[in-house]
Amino acid sequence: MSNFTVNGVYSYSSSNIYSYLGRVPTSQRALQDAFREYGIRPTGNDYDLKRLKNAMYEDYSAQVQEQINNQNAQKNDVPWAGLLTQIGIQPTGDYAKDKSAFDNAINLLSQSAIDGQAMAYFAGLRSEAQRVFGSYNQPAQQGQISFYTYESQHFS
């Protein structure tokens, strides 16, 4: 068992560090940097390690939540997200899965439509689906290229 000294004064045993943080830093400097990075003022008490652990956990949790939010934003950035939510489907961002889910749901909903207004509504949704799913599946149009670009691509 070794001791880690922070700021040249405060000492923490490697076993206590491990019990709070689940790992032991590679050096005293690394532990000191962690205290500084997370704004924990060392006092030499084991409670410092608990505060450091909590600060590290909060930071990690915030990073994970940000990743989740970014993934959810990507799912809702797809052109068909609004269409799917109209019929109660949460978009996944995967073209094939979302299109299949839409097709299945709209077929079931259309079968239960008994009046002209509902049938017209579902026809409108199908039309919108052709637009949003179809435009996504088509290759992007290539802009014009200059003669110099053409020449360098074909004659170099």
Can you walk through the features of this model?
The chain is mainly alpha-helical and 156 residues long. It folds into two domains: 3-74, no CATH class; 79-137, no CATH class. It is 66% helix and 5% strand. The chain contains seven helices and two strands; from the N terminus they run E-E-H-H-H-H-H-H-H. It has helices spanning 14-21, 28-37, 46-76, 81-86, 95-112, 116-137, 147-154; strands spanning 3-6, 10-13. It has a two-stranded antiparallel sheet with strand order 1-2. Helix 1 (14-21) runs parallel beside helix 3 (46-76) and helix 5 (95-112) runs antiparallel to helix 6. The longest helix has 31 residues, at 46-76. The relative contact order is 0.07. Mean pLDDT is 81; it is low at 138-143.
Short characterization:
The protein has helices at 14-21, 28-37, 46-76, 81-86, 95-112, 116-137, 147-154; strands spanning 3-6, 10-13. By secondary structure, it is mainly alpha-helical. It has a two-stranded antiparallel ribbon with strand order 1-2.
Helix-strand string: EEHHHHHHH
Cα shape: rod-shaped
Radius of gyration: 29 Å
- CA-to-CA gap between the ends? 67 Å
Biggest sheet layout: 2 strands, antiparallel
Helix/strand structural class: mainly alpha
In total, how many domains does the architecture comprise?
2
